[in-house]
């Protein structure tokens, strides 16, 4: 079965009279311009033109490649990625913007893919965890998570990594945070403190509580020398004894 | 969520006209609150009017020396804007205290001001709620109400407004610019959000179909003394139990001007005007700050589980004022 066949349920495959239905059901203005654009733009993928009532065809640029897909307006970007495009790296943790497991990068900024609609993301550059590594090499942040045990079960890890990649760019762009002491002097990569990293990563929860490793991974990716995981365990033991 | 039609209006006028002719339509921009509400069936719009691509993304200096902030400026862009960091640091800090980086990247100024309460009874459609469905009752008043209002509530609703940005905006005497089919009008920020009274279903004084287009900040000469102190159940990424925005103009030993606003305590961002007036002409010292805090909370009423908020608010005001008196910064 091709990817495309997997995407569509039997019910969806059987309903081919999209244009008339959707335009009458949704009103003439609804998504019509984007629909026509999408139809005119032939893309490399093999998405069929079958659409069901209420669906619209959109074109998303994901990890550098254009993908055509048919979605109802209510479909979140996360569901479109996972259920339609088979990009299951972005995780559905809470589905309410509280856990960060669905974090992706859109136009260079990290966002929660569960809190945005796929139809709203046309013409944007979307990067998911699947788009970070090159064919032969992991992204430096992925390596840093491996080197520093930045996970246990791994479920939150794609979101943590996407968030960290964007975080490093934010620092390069001079962004401030709630814990930046002087708002006119944002931290640099070399001076990015643990407090800053924790505040800036607070939108990604780790139920295994691998936070020490996650902070260390960000430190390494920022070009700092993180403490070894063993060092943090030794410190804990000293604290418990004292 | 229920399905809806999706439209990208091609101008503010187009958006407003569509929203006026279809009262079941909703605007969407960042979507961080609305998409979540759609998922739990709190909103069931006929159509979503996606205004996110309209041109309201500028931050411009006004003739008066203040700032005009387009409604589609993201929280992140506003908090990091150099003029805001330099001249309105308490607005930067208030925004950065809210939500997470991901949400701030998505969220817009207009949307932030329109976000609705996180009262768990409002959110859970299995419960009655006067805000969600008028005249069905308020289970929060007699239920678990630790996060609820201590000021300005009514027997119909004890919910609080969750916005950090709004607390800073009200402290800075901002003005909203909104557009309806009849044209533009301005609303003083302090009059934008409503107390619940008998109509808790209405959060703001926006008329049906109207769209927020900009927020205007007047120049505030002493805004650099601004402080935003947020107290919550965890250090980051949580709504305020209590938050305080303050700014002070001190000349010699005497207070010339004071701003005090509270978040997390009422149905709207709460400006403590009487406490501000008390401070004018007084010395910037601990005793006067204590009295100002007492005045700000004198009408506070505790529910079963939120009595701690009264004392917490007083202490937060005292601390924030003390930092403002030292010239501002981190509280």
From TrEMBL, chain A:
PROSITE patterns linked: 2FE2S_FER_1, 2FE2S_FER_2, TAT
Keywords from the named record: 2Fe-2S, Iron, Iron-sulfur, Metal-binding, Oxidoreductase
Family annotation (SUPFAM superfamilies): 2Fe-2S ferredoxin-like (SSF54292), CO dehydrogenase ISP C-domain like (SSF47741)
Pathway: Alkaloid degradation; nicotine degradation
Domain of life: Bacteria
Molecular function (Gene Ontology), one example: metal ion binding
Protein name, entry field: Putative oxidoreductase, 2Fe-2S subunit
Species, as recorded: Hyella patelloides LEGE 07179
UniProtKB/TrEMBL annotation, chain B:
SMART domains on file: CO_deh_flav_C
Domain of life assignment: Bacteria
Keywords: Oxidoreductase
GO molecular function: FAD binding; oxidoreductase activity
Pfam family, one: FAD_binding_5
Residues in FAD-binding PCMH-type domain copies: 1-222
Protein name: Putative oxidoreductase with FAD-binding domain
Organism, as annotated: Hyella patelloides LEGE 07179
Gene name in the database record: yagS
């Amino acid at each position: 079965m091709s990817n495309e066949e997997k995407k569509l349920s039997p019910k969806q495959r059987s309903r081919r009279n999209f244009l008339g239905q959707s335009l009458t059901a949704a009103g003439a203005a609804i998504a019509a311009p984007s629909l026509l654009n999408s139809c005119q733009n032939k893309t490399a993928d093999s998405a069929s033109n079958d659409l069901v009532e209420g669906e619209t065809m959109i074109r998303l640029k994901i990890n550098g490649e254009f993908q055509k897909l048919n979605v109802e307006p209510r479909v979140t970007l996360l569901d479109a990625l996972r259920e339609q495009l088979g990009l299951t790296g972005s995780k559905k943790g809470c589905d309410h913007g509280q856990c960060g497991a669905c974090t992706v990068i859109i136009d260079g900024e990290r966002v929660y893919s569960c809190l945005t609609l796929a139809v709203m993301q046309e013409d944007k550059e979307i990067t998911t965890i699947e788009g970070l590594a090159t064919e032969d090499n992991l992204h430096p942040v992925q390596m840093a998570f491996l080197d520093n045990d930045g996970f246990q079960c791994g479920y939150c890890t794609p979101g943590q990594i996407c968030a960290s990649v964007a975080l490093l760019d934010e620092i390069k762009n001079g962004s401030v945070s709630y814990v930046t002491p002087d708002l006119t002097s944002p931290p640099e990569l070399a001076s990015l403190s643990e407090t800053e990293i924790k505040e800036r990563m607070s939108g990604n929860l780790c139920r295994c509580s691998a936070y020490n490793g996650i902070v260390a991974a960000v430190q390494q990716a920022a070009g700092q020398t993180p403490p070894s995981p063993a060092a943090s365990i030794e410190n804990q033991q000293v604290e418990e004894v004292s | 969520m229920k399905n809806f039609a999706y439209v990208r209006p091609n101008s503010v006028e187009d958006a407003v006209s569509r929203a006026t002719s279809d009262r079941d339509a909703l605007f969407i921009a960042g979507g961080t609150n609305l998409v979540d509400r759609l998922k739990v069936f709190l909103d069931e719009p006929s159509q979503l009017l996606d205004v996110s691509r309209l041109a309201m993304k500028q931050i411009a200096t006004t003739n008066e020396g203040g700032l005009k902030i387009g409604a589609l400026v993201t929280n992140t862009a506003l908090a990091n804007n150099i003029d805001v960091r330099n001249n309105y640091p308490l607005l930067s800090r208030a925004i950065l205290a809210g939500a997470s980086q991901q949400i701030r990247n998505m969220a817009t100024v207009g949307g932030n001001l329109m976000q609705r309460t996180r009262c768990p009874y409002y959110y859970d459609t299995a419960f009655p709620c006067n805000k969600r469905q008028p005249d069905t009752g308020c289970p929060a008043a007699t239920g678990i109400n630790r996060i609820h209002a201590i000021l300005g509530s009514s027997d119909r609703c004890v919910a609080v407004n969750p916005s950090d940005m709004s607390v800073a905006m009200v402290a800075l005497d901002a003005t909203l610019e909104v557009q309806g089919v009849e044209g533009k009008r301005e609303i003083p920020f302090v009059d934008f959000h409503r107390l619940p009274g008998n109509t808790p279903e209405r959060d703001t004084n926006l008329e049906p179909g109207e769209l927020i287009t900009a927020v205007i900040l007047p120049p505030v000469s002493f805004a650099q003394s601004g402080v935003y102190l947020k107290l919550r159940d965890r250090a980051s990424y949580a709504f305020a139990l209590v938050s305080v925005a303050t700014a002070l103009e001190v000349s010699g030993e005497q207070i010339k001007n004071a701003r005090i606003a509270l978040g997390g305590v009422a149905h709207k961002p709460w400006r403590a005007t009487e406490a501000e007036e008390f401070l004018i002409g007084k010395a910037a010292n601990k005793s006067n700050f204590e009295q100002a805090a007492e005045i700000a909370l004198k009408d506070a009423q505790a529910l079963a589980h939120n009595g701690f908020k009264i004392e917490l608010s007083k202490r937060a005001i005292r601390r924030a004022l003390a930092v403002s008196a030292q010239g501002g910064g981190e509280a």
